[in-house]
Design a protein that fits this description.
single chain; ABC transporter transmembrane region fold; binds adenosine-5'-triphosphate
Length: 570
């Protein structure tokens, strides 16, 4: 129970920061419910009173009835119910949208503070579901699990007190039975459906993952003729998830049946006790009818609670998953690198890095120094740790041991803005947006002139090709640059990088995917552009030394260890 509260507490605190809206929203729901019940009760009273007055007159007995006051009351409650419901919907929807914004802001903030290794541990679709369905489930906490039960309890107490004015015993019975019923359909049902609804969170995520795999990897599955095997996996999981949902639906149906059963019995009890009071002339007929109709209407107040509380596990599961985003988030003061620095030196001091959930370290005791404005080439076979090293230098992950320093400062501690200004990395994977060439280039420098864009394209031997395109700079590159060849897309990424003015540059396989002549062109452009910057080339092997002029250090990564004794002076 303690753990349950601890997991939900941060989100409840966030929701209750808007407690004023919560109170007004609850009050509006309460007024709407009371107006509805009052309308029902008063109408019942009025119809019976009219009928009795009519019967008395028909029997020749003197009888009178003031129809104006109750008639006015009925109109008042009818209007109040409509207006209160309208205002309540407007107000609570506004509150819910504000809360959604609060929640998204908080979760998005947590996501942006995650390091590369944590981000890579999950798929983009999983992060998306944190931002969408998990947040919606937490939002339900407010909309379905906080406001309705409070409004329902207040209504129960209000109706019981109202009945007790004429029928104290009935009022007491109604209060006790409905309060117990309220406890059962809230706490009891929360407990009853917890395991199933908690399971539903992971079921949905797993199902989404499997279906996405089925679609995304359809080409591979088709070529290996294994789409049936994978579809079977999806179907098996779907069946499990469906079973779980069915159990939850059965519980919800049983909950409603139980609720109707208890309120039905309460209605009979009210009628029975009230009839005894009527025959003892303690109460008049119309009042008894009003009490019975009020009890009848109370069903409406409670009817949504069982289904909402059966899904408590959904909100709890979502809270737990979102809480996990905060784990390992470091707390430190970020620093800025000086604006106009000439160059930045790099120092690795016994740096080791082990990925979370990995046993073997990816990098072991790296010891090296790269002076400011110097160039290094680091070679290493696939899996030797080159990308990990790049992630460390870029400050995307922090060393698990040792220290890495850029101009004496740990990159991990440098602000993201300052890092973006001073550091640049060309990764092996090309990330282009589904837009035009110009839009993709301007991401690096929105204020770039057209001349600068052409210059950058010319540096990567693409200007000629772009000039031949009908739309030139407005040529669409497609999603992830799919309308370009692999080599062209990488060159666009390189041109984008060259539009900036970073002091530390890391180039992961800059010559991959291009022919020998283009590679020479790139090497020449890079040589000029890298002058005055500190640079590291990350390569599997050196195929052509002439592509790497002016290299000061040549290092080799072997199984995560850096061998620095191969010094080149070209
Ligand atoms: N996100 C990750 N989680 C766990 N282990 C990882 C992760 N990324 C890389 N590794 C492991 O770390 C080691 C170094 O990987 P890294 O990607 O740095 O190698 P690399 O030299 O860049 O390889 P390549 O040339 O193929 O890109 C490998 O053993 C790899 O399995």
């Amino acid at each position: 129970m303690k753990q349950f509260y601890r997991d939900l507490a941060p989100w409840l605190k966030l929701l209750l920061r808007r407690r004023q809206q919560f109170l007004v929203g609850t009050l509006l729901v309460w007024v709407t419910l009371l107006a509805g019940l009052s309308l029902l009760g008063l109408s019942g009273w009025f119809i019976v009173a009219c009928a009795l007055a009519g019967v008395a007159l028909a029997a020749g007995l003197p009888s009178s009835l003031d129809v104006y006051v109750p008639g006015g009351g009925i109109r008042f409650f009818a209007l109040l119910r409509t207006v209160a419901r309208y205002v309540e919907r407007l107000y609570n929807h506004n509150t819910v949208l504000t809360l959604l914004a609060d929640l998204r802001h908080r979760v998005f903030g947590d996501l942006t503070r995650l390091d590369d290794a944590s981000l890579k541990r999950r798929r983009a679709s999983e992060w998306l579901s944190r931002l969408t369905s998990d947040i919606d489930n937490l939002d339900n906490l407010y909309l379905r699990l906080l406001i309705p039960p409070v409004a329902a309890l207040l209504t129960i107490l209000g109706v019981s007190a109202f009945i007790a004015i004429w029928l104290p015993v009935v009022g007491a019975v109604v209060a006790v039975v409905l309060t117990l019923l309220w406890a059962v359909v809230t706490f009891g049902y929360g407990w009853l459906g917890f395991a199933n609804s908690y399971q539903q969170v992971s079921d949905q995520e797993e199902l989404r993952r499997l279906v996405l795999d089925q679609v995304q990897a359809s080409a591979e599955l088709l070529s290996y003729q294994t789409q049936g095997w994978h579809r079977q996996k999806v179907e098996q999981h779907e069946a499990l998830a469906f079973n779980n949902q069915r159990r939850l639906a059965v519980k919800a149906a049983m909950g409603n049946a139980f609720l109707s059963g208890v309120t039905g019995c309460l209605l009979i009890a009210t009628l029975w006790i009230g009839s005894m009071a009527l025959s003892a002339e303690q109460v008049v007929g119309p009042i008894l009818v009003m009490a019975v109709i009020a009890v009848l209407g109370i069903n409406e107040v409670l009817v949504l609670l069982p289904a909402a509380f059966l899904k408590l596990g959904l909100s709890y599961g979502a809270a737990q998953r979102l809480n996990a985003l905060k784990v390992n988030q470091p707390v430190f003061d970020v620093v800025e690198l000086p604006e106009n620095t000439e160059g930045l030196s790099l120092q690795f001091d016994q740096v080791s890095y082990t990925y979370p959930e990995s046993v073997a370290p990816a990098l072991i005791n790296l010891q090296a120094t790269l002076p400011s404005q110097a160039r290094a080439v680091i070679t290493g076979v696939s899996g030797s740790g080159k990308s990990t090293l790049a992630g460390l230098v870029m400050g995307r992950i922090a060393p698990t041991q040792g220290a890495i320093r850029v101009a004496g400062i740990s990159p991990w501690h440098i602000s993201p803005e300052s890092r973006a200004d001073h550091f640049a990395l060309l990764t092996q994977q090309t990330d282009l947006f589904d837009g035009t060439l110009e839009e993709n280039l301007r991401i690096a420098k929105p204020s770039a002139t057209e001349e600068e864009l052409w210059q950058a394209l010319s540096s990567v031997a693409l200007s000629h090709w772009v000039q031949q395109q009908p739309k030139q700079l407005s040529t669409h590159v497609g999603e992830k640059g799919q309308q370009l060849s692999g080599g062209q897309a990488r060159r666009v990424a390189l041109a984008r990088l060259m539009l900036r003015d970073p002091k530390v540059v890391l180039l992961d396989e800059p010559f991959a995917g291009v022919d020998a002549e283009t590679a020479r062109h790139l090497a020449m452009s890079l040589d000029q552009w890298l002058s005055g910057r500190t640079a590291i080339f990350l390569l599997h092997q050196i195929d052509d030394v002439s592509l790497l002029p002016n290299v000061d250090c040549q290092w080799h990564l072997d199984g995560g260890r850096l061998i620095t004794d191969t010094t080149a002076d070209s």
